[in-house]
Amino acid sequence: MKRFMGLDVGDKRIGVALSDLMGWTAQGLETVERTNLKKDLQRLEEIIKANEVEKIVVGLPKNMNGTLGPQSEKVLEFTERLKKRTDKEIIFWDERLTTVAAEKSLIQADMSRKKRKTVIDKVAATYILQNYLDSINR
User: Fold this and answer.
1) Which among 115, 136, 116 has a CA at the least distance from the CA of 25?
2) Residues 17, 132: contact at Cβ < 8 Å?
3) Which of 91, 117, 125, 135 could form an S-S bond across to 17 if both were Cys, CB 3.0 to 4.6 Å?
4) Looking at the DSSP assignment, which residues form a beta bridge with residue 129?
5) Strand locations in 10-113 (E)
6) Number of helices (H) and strands (E), helices first, in the chain?
7) Are 59 and 124 in contact, with CB atoms under 8 Å apart?
8) Which of left, alpha, beta for 136 (phi over 0: left; psi -120 to 50: alpha)?
9) Assigned fold of 3-136
10) CA 28 to CA 30: how far, in whole Å?
11) pTM summary value
């Protein structure tokens, strides 16, 4: 049984989601408020160890035409640093429109703008991970 971790890496926050042990469903775990690279990576390592994560799925923000932009470069750079600190396989997943979908679902749930800001990244990470899990479990 493998547990997967999904990440939505942003400049201010990192949304974290985990799969169940069967690798079928994704649940939001937490939002890591970014402070500095060392602490950010340290927190992710703690989550990986505590939850016995086997694979990491990182949302890669692409432009609508499929090209990589400046934010993609930041995510790739962050992921390289994470790779150096863990032996887990890292998979990139197209995250186009996941934040938009997350925002819509939170608005439909009648969540206040202030509350949405605190959970949007975690929900986006859940979407990223669930889309990946659905693709491998077809």
Assistant:
1) 136
2) no
3) 125
4) none
5) 13-19, 26-33, 53-60, 89-94
6) 4, 5
7) yes
8) alpha
9) Nucleotidyltransferase; domain 5 (3.30.420)
10) 6
11) 0.89
